[in-house]
Write a structure and sequence with these properties.
Two copies of one chain form a homodimer. With about 150 residues, chain A is mainly alpha-helical. Chain A has one domain: Winged helix-like DNA-binding domain superfamily/Winged helix DNA-binding domain (Arc Repressor Mutant, subunit A, Orthogonal Bundle), CATH 1.10.10. The first copy, chain A, is built from six helices and two strands, in the order H-H-H-H-E-E-H-H. In chain A, strands 1-2 form a two-stranded antiparallel ribbon. In chain A, a hairpin with a 7-residue loop joins strand 1 and strand 2. Chain A binds a DNA duplex (30 and 30 nucleotides) through helix 4.
DNA sequence: TCCTTTTGGTTCGATATCGCACCATTTAGT
DNA sequence: ACTAAATGGTGCGATATCGAACCAAAAGGA
């Protein structure tokens, strides 16, 4: 007899976790967008941040995968960033189908300014989790994210 | 000289955490919606689940607050659920402006079926975090959520 | 009681998100 | 080389999301 579910309550905990994650996502999104200029939206900021943290010159598809959004969504996000002059789309020398996303000077400055203007907000609750707890949570979530990603086939 | 930021790297960790949370949210959303019938969307399921976990008879505004979404979004979500016959909107006997959201039998059944059909997916990675790790993460995130919520004034 | 403010909810318009279909290139198979 | 399949990206239409403005009921003063 196949053991399909040895610990059903575990599922409930995962549901709870996803629920909590959804709410925090909501809260952080709202907080961010309240600070960002007019129509600037969280995904746009996230992309800029990613390009700085990792490296610019990524392709749109790489970005879509990194954030686990459909590529059409990324196209839209990048179009917004380009219209604001925060990124620059160039042809990919290695593949004529593909493009590369590069930060402009304005893009880098924008990110620095945004971080600075966001700092006070983060400061309002940054004492909630200690450094160890934070890194612990991040590590666990990262582990979960990679497993979920892998399970996605 | 005022100490505005005693530990700047902490902010970076929070950014990282929010980033990770955003991606997992994305992944769970996509996974859920792949299983749910046609146009059914994650927030709708989340509301049903909440009504069962907590108690139905909540008002739309209570739900909006619970999920930290604007009330207009909740109106829309509830309209979708009502159109599918999964919830029922009744007048609030205590307040003529307000309404109450009640689950229908179809709504309860729907939730049970959805959970069942989702179980295999969760099973694909449910061994990633142990029960202790899970409850630990949930507890920490819950703590953070409440603090962020409070900081929202 | 009358008037002001607050609160619960919806309507409306603007934008974001995403699936589907499509095109151009690249890769793989023969 | 030639064709078939896979890959990177976009256009389009349908829906989701959300802020602003609005309405009706309730709460709070005077």
């Amino acid at each position: 007899m196949p053991e399909t579910n040895a610990a059903p309550e575990l599922n409930g905990l995962y549901f709870q976790l996803f629920n909590e994650i959804g709410i925090i996502n909501q809260l952080s999104r709202a907080a961010f967008e309240a600070r960002l200029p007019d129509g600037m939206v969280l995904p746009q900021f996230a992309v800029i941040n990613h390009l700085i943290r990792v490296e610019d010159g990524r392709t749109p598809l790489q970005l879509a995968r990194a954030f686990q959004v459909p590529k059409t969504s990324m196209t839209h996000t990048l179009a917004g960033l380009e219209k604001r002059g925060l990124v620059e789309m160039r042809a990919n020398p290695d593949d004529a189908r593909s493009k590369q996303v590069w930060l402009t000077e304005a893009g880098r400055k924008f990110r620095d300014d945004a971080i600075a203007s966001l700092a006070p907000d983060v400061g309002a609750f940054s004492d909630t989790l200690g450094r160890e707890e934070l890194t612990e949570v991040i590590a666990l979530l990262e582990r979960l994210r990679k497993r979920m990603d892998a399970a996605r086939d």
